[in-house]
Design brief:
There is one protein chain. The protein folds into two domains: about 140 residues, 2-Layer Sandwich (Fructose-1,6-Bisphosphatase, Chain A, domain 1); about 130 residues, D-Maltodextrin-Binding Protein, domain 2 (3-Layer(aba) Sandwich), CATH 3.40.190.80. It is about 30% helix and about 20% strand. A hairpin with a 4-residue loop joins strand 7 and strand 8. Pfam families: Inositol_P (PF00459). Belongs to the inositol monophosphatase superfamily. Its EC number is 3.1.3.25.
Length: about 300
Amino acid sequence: MADVDVDLQAVHDAMVSAAYEAGKMILAANPADIDTGTKLNSVDIVTEVDKGVEKMVSGRLAAAFPSFAFMGEETYKPGVRLGPEPTFVVDPIDGTTNFVHSFPNACISLGLAVDRRPAVGVIYNPWQDLLFTAVRGRGAHMTRIRGTPPQRLPLARSPRPLTGLGSALLAVEWGSDREGANFDAKAAIFRQLAASRESGGSMVHSLRSLGSAALNMAAVAAGQLDAYWEGGCWAWDVCAGWCILEEAGGRVVGGNPRDWDTPLESRVYLAVRGAPTGQEELVEEFWAVMGDRKLEYSV
């Protein structure tokens, strides 16, 4: 189905409304008093608030767009894949570990995929009252306080060229896998990125972990980070941010070498900010750091 068959602006408006309502629910919760559980292991956390927010969002969006499919983190069934039909791709709280620790860096991430590609993205951090939005073909915006004029992304009027890893600020995440080949590869690559050039490293300016894939992607879109490398997250973690980043002139490729056209469900991504020059060169330099190493996750 082509975008022209879907009123993307109406979808955007409904998603923004749902995001603000979700923000109220999240802020009203006291992490010290809520029930929590785990999925993969003790660091893969889910709370009753995650489930309540997803239920509210799915209900509102289904009422407004009954023909659309829905894929949410808390109701996902293993093996289900995105189809070509318009599909809401939702993470009710991206950054649940931050949330349960009362660390104010988590968000709701609402994406719409059409033909398996991001078409609308809405990310909202209620603690900072920070909203990122995009509609395919219509640009990306950030609203710092509700009711104030949105700022177009990237925030810089004239983004700087990308000049390589040695001058880059990168986002990375440990994820919930804490053993095995993927964990070992991440640890080795993190070290090589940070190490001095004299010892064979890239000596990036630094590595950042915001604790939320969506907020990492949004920061790259804003131009506050130069790139974000991720392995192990899911479509609902990146769908909204992907749309926002592309509309801000950025690019998403595979997190494994030589994957220039990675699908939304690949689970391994490299996101690079918008820049007049240097995007492809930064990607190639990052892939060279990886060498023969690859991250592999089942879908």
